[in-house]
Write a structure and sequence with these properties.
The chain is an alpha+beta fold and 236 residues long. It is built from 8 helices and 4 strands, in the order E-E-E-H-H-H-H-H-E-H-H-H. It has one domain. The chain is globular and about 45 Å long.
């Protein structure tokens, strides 16, 4: 399978996320944090899962569920592994608790139950790919936690679904916090998939083809950052 080409660009005035030419674009203020929007691209890199909240409400529901579920699992792993602010045994229960609210209230009426949405999420989750790409999320989430002005910054990253940031960046390979949290992500995603495996499947929805947004010009060169080193230091 060919590597997926992904681009993440986030600024207070303009957001652009793309996977193999399929694009999401926003202009002006956006409520979501950069790390949430990056997770949409991790879902795209994963493959076989809705990641674009476009076309139909049903597809939007599943795309947002997938992103929010993965985001909460990764954030909870970050909080437990890097910050020590959450017991590891609460990583999955806390994520499921939030997503039950997400399905029953925030995105109600949801096309399926939270259990069924969780089962579909886990069915196609590529654990090793998400674990391998996790350092990109770790770096961005750490910046959000420790920089009070992170929402005023510009972030730009180009990567592929086959990237291995730990192998490509010696400073990440030498950081025990990243490596230990990465292993925690592997453990908890495996546990989540096993938990979802006990849920009886229901018929799959049929999604219409997704059309990409109109072609966009690249961000200004002064804000462009390629995939090097720590990756997610904001452009100045």
């Amino acid at each position: 399978m060919a590597a997926k080409q992904l681009k993440f660009y986030w600024s207070p005035q303009h957001q652009l996320f793309s996977c193999d030419g399929a694009k999401l674009e926003g202009h002006g203020y956006i409520q979501t944090n950069p790390s949430h929007d990056l997770v949409h691209l991790l879902i795209a890199a994963n493959g076989n899962m809705p990641w674009q909240p476009v076309e139909s409400r049903e597809q939007t529901c599943f795309a947002e569920y997938n992103a929010v579920m993965l985001e909460h699992l990764l954030v909870n792993c970050f909080n437990a592994g890097a910050l020590g602010s959450l017991p590891a045994q609460q990583i999955i229960p806390e994520a499921r608790k939030f997503l039950r609210w997400f399905v029953s209230e925030h995105y109600a009426p949801f096309p399926v139950s939270e259990e069924e949405a969780f089962r579909r999420f886990a069915e196609h989750l590529d654990i090793e790919r998400i674990v391998r790409l996790f350092p990109y999320f770790y770096s961005l989430r750490a910046w959000e936690c420790f920089s009070p002005d992170y929402r005023a910054e510009t972030y730009d990253l180009e990567f592929t679904s086959e990237d291995d940031p730990v192998r490509e960046a010696p400073e990440w390979a030498a950081d025990p916090n990243i490596l230990e949290t990465q292993e925690l992500v592997r453990q908890k995603l495996s546990e989540a998939v096993a938990e979802a495996g006990s849920i009886r499947p229901k018929p799959e929805p049929v999604f219409p083809p997704t059309s990409s947004a109109s072609p966009l010009s690249d961000p200004p060169a002064k804000t462009r950052q390629k995939k090097t080193g720590l990756g997610f230091k904001p452009a100045r």
